[in-house]
Specification:
The chain is an alpha/beta fold. The protein is built from seven helices and ten strands.
Length: 225
Amino acid sequence: MIKLTDIDKYIDSRFQRTFILKGIDLEVQPGEFLTIMGPSGAGKSSLMNIIGMLDEPSAGEYYFFDEPVHKMREKQKSEMHKNFIGFIFQAYHLIDELTVYENIETPLLYKGVSSNMRKSLVAEMLDRFNMVAKKDLFPEQLSGGQQQLVGIARAIVGEPKLLLADEPTGNLHSDQGRQIMDIFQKLNEEGITIIQVTHSEENARRGKRIVRIVDGAMAADEKIR
């Protein structure tokens, strides 16, 4: 599903080249639940942004379902991202001016989904996450855990093949964090491929594989189960 070959990400200044990622080789199969771990500044989020087509590598090759992302134009990448990838952020990134319902609906509008289908899909998400009573509330009226549930609903409403989660429980207390990880495990059992970045060993072990990054390079690749 995903194949990264010799991926570098660097910044050139006048006298030197600073590497953020160096020589990353990574394959991810459909249905995997992979965790990327490493110290702050190791390059984890940069790697996620490249996989999520939000950023480009400086060198190397990236294949997504055998399609060469590194050769694609911006429009093609945008289409791939829109149709196949859901993204969940630590800081939720909900749109403050939109209600819960409208936030969840947003990716469907981008995809051009019909009005009736949008209603049906959003209703399904509200029901699944027990948010029906909160559909007309705005993000500031929700707790952090509730905001992250809306973020997850928004990420999966378009039925992506790949879910990327960057520190999804970083701003939550432990009970809320466990609830989010329970949801991830269930989504993975339903067939969604998940890649998460986390500092939590406990959350990492909910997945099937841990890749550790140190100073922009892969230091370990461990299967859990």
